[in-house]
Design goal:
Elements (H helix, E strand, L loop, with lengths): L3 E2 L5 E4 L5 E4 L2 H13 L2 E6 L2 E8 L2 E5 L1 H14 L2 E2 L7 H11 L7 H7 L5 H11 L2
Amino acid sequence: MLDYNINSFLTFIRQKNGQIKVIQDVDQIENVYKLLYELGVRKTNVGKKQVFYRRIGSNIMPMSFQEVKDSFKNFLIKERIVNMPEDIKMVVVLNWFYKSQSIKIKNDFFDFYLIEELSDEELNKLKKQIKI
């Protein structure tokens, strides 16, 4: 299991009033989509419909867009994050996650990193799984 640096995904800014502000720059946003790819998240088009799925080896399993977003959230909660400031609780990160809508379908990174063309066999298998 790899260690992941929280600074690759988020920046924490301490405000004068003591509150912690969580932000992302463009590189950090891009890293989220790279991570989603590592986690097996993919997108393809079936006709005019966008379909999300997880690829693990040669297996593909359909997933909802909510599950795509939850993949990043679960990573933040469960993986071995390094350089997480000791005084910042996970609740701060989760509050940011729910408020920010950090993962968006209409994002160039989404298509660049996650869109995948399926073989005819994989496409047929996916269509059966999602009943199209």
